[in-house]
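FAQ: What does a multi-protein file look like?

Like this. Sequence, then C-alpha cells, then the next protein.
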Amino acid sequence: MYRSLIFFLLLSLSAVLISCHTDQSPKPAGYPRIHFPTDTGHYVYQPQDCPYTFELPDYMRVEKKEKFFEEDVSGNCWFNLICDTLNATIYLSYKELDQRMSLLNLMEDAYRLTYKHTNKADYIQPRELDNGHGGVGLIYYVGGDAASNIQFFITDTTQHFVRGALYFYAHPNADSLQPVIRFMVDDIDRMLDSWRWQ
C-alpha cells in the first residue's frame, strides 16, 4: 500500500513539475490562404445598347443591375462585375450628362460618396485618369478598414459618366485584404485604360 501511495505521489509531483515549465505563449494571428483566380485572358466587353466598351479578365462575370433601391435601372447600363473567387464586386453605374445631371454635380456626388469612408479610412488618395482614348476621371485609393477600398469615375466630359466602386463580401480588414486589393487594382486599371466611348 505504501508503495502505491509513494508511486502516486511521485507521479503527481513529476506531472506538476513538468507542467510548470511549459511555454504558454499565444499563437500568432493567422490569415486564410488566398487562392487568386488564374488569368487565362481578357476579352472586350460590349454591353448591348450601352455607349461604352472595356476589357475584362475572363474570371469575372457580368451581372446586369435591374433594381436600385426599388427603382428600375434595367435600361440604364448599370452592371456588377463579380469575381467569385475573391468575393469581390465592382459596381458600375452609368449616367448620361444633361442639364439635370451635370458633370459638376456627378463629380461632386462621386467625391461625397468616396469621402463618406473617412471615419474608417487611414487615407484617401486620388489619382487622375486619362486613358488617351477620351476617358478621363479620378481613381480614389481608400486605405484602412473602409468598406470600399477603390472608388472611381470615368467620363468623356460631354455626354457620359460612369461611377464605380469595389466592395468585398468580407469584414473590412486592411491587413488581410491588402494582397486582394492590389490584385483587383490591376484589373480596374486595365479596365479603365481599355475604356472606349461609343
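And here is the next protein:
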Amino acid sequence: MAASPPAVPTLSRTLRSRHVALISIGGIIGAGLFVGSSANIATVGPAVLVSYAIAGALMFLVMRMLAEMAAADPHALSFADHARAGLGAWAGFVCGWLYWYFWVVVVGIEAIAGAAILQTWIPLPVWQIGLVLMVLLTATNLLSTRSYGEFEFWFASIKVAAIVAFIVVTGSYALGLTSPAGATLGNLVAHGGFAPFGAAAVLAGVTGIVFSMTGAEIVTVVAAESSEPSRAIAAMTTSLIARILLFYVGAVFCILAVVPWNEIVPGSSPFALTLTRIGIPFAATIMNLIVLVAVLSCLNSGLYVTSRMLFGLAAQGDAPRSLVALDARRVPTRAILIGTVFGYLAVLASVVSPQRLFTFLVNASGAIMLVIYLLIALAQIRQRRALEQRAEGRLPIRMWLFPWLSYATVAGIVLVLASMLFRPAERAQLAASALSVAVVLGALWWRRRSAAGQPR
C-alpha cells in the first residue's frame, strides 16, 4: 500500500547508509545522557543501571515493531503512516501532529539550551545567540537534505567518539589500571548499597530515562530520503540495543564506579565530575563543548523532522496541501520555515524569563512520546494480525515472540505512564501532555465535522 498519493512529489534520496547509521545513533545521545543522567542517579542510586536496562529494552522493542511495519510498507514517509495503516486515519493524524508538536517544542528547548552554553564564552544575551543558532541551522536544512545529513553525521560522530573515549578513560581508572589507589568498583555498593531507595525507585527511574532515550525513531523519517530505507532501518534496529547498552549503561556504570552516587548533584553533568575526579584538566570545558554538540545535533534534527512530518501530513491531506511543494533541490522549504517559527518565538520569549520558559517547554512535551509509542505498538499488533489473516507471506523483519512481546511492550508503556501519576513533577508533565493530546483530538473532530459539512 502506497503511503501517499501519486501526485505528491518525491523527496530526494541523497542520504547514504553512513548518514542514516550515525543519525540513528545520534538520535539517542543527547543532553539527556550528558546532563539529565545526574537526576536519575541521585534519585535511584547505583541501581539506576537496572532502570537504564529496562528503559533500553522497552525502546528496543518499540523500534523492532517499527522495523516490522516499515518492512511491510517501505513507501511510508514516517511512522505516522504506519499508525494510519494499522489503526486508521485518525491514528495517523494524531501521531503526526503530536510528533510535529513534540519536535517544535524541542527546537525551542535546544535553541535556548545551546545559547546558554555559548554564553559561557560569548558575552551576548541568550536570545541573540539563540537567534544566530536558529538562522544557521535553518540555512543548513534549507540548503539540501544532504547538508543536513553531513552535519548530523559529524555531530553524531563527535558524540560517539566522546562517549567511547569517556568509557575507555574512566573504565581504566575504575578497574585500577590508571588509579593510584587501585580499583574503585566498591562505589557501586557503598553508601547504602546497590539499591539504596529500594526496588520501587528502580521502576520509577525508568520514566525519566525513557524520555532521554527518545529520538531513535527519527531514522524512520530519515529513511524516506535514503537510497536504502528498509535496509537502513533493519540495520539500525538490530544494533540499537547494543548501542544503548554501550552508550548509556556503559557510561553510567563508569560514572558510578568512579564517583560515589551521593556526590552527584541533579542538574550538573556527572561526566564532568567524573573526569575532574580522575584528574583530567579542563574537564568542565570539555563537557560543555560536548553537550553543546549534542544540543546542536538535536536542534538540527528537530528542524529536519518537523519539516518532513509536516510534509507527510500534507501528503495525507491532514495539513494544507501547499506544504508538499518542493524546491529545485527537492527540499520542502515551506514546511521547514513553518517548523522554525516556534523556535524563533521561543528564543525571543526567553528575553522575559529564560528559566521559566525552559521549564514550561519541558513540561509541555512531557509524555507525548510515550503516547506516540503506545499508538505505534497498538498499530503493529493490529497490522500484524491483518497480514496473518490475509496470509501475504513472511515478512522480511518480524517482531519476536508475537503477540506476547508486543503485548508486553504495550503493558510496559502503560505502566510507565501510570507511574507518572505518583511523582509530582512528572504528574504536571502528564497533565500538560494530556492537554496536548486533547487539543489534537479536538482538531481531528473539527476537521471531520468540517469535511462532513462540505457539499459533495
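Q: Is there any per-entry metadata?
A: Some entries carry free-text notes. For the entry above: The chain is about 70% helix and 0% strand.
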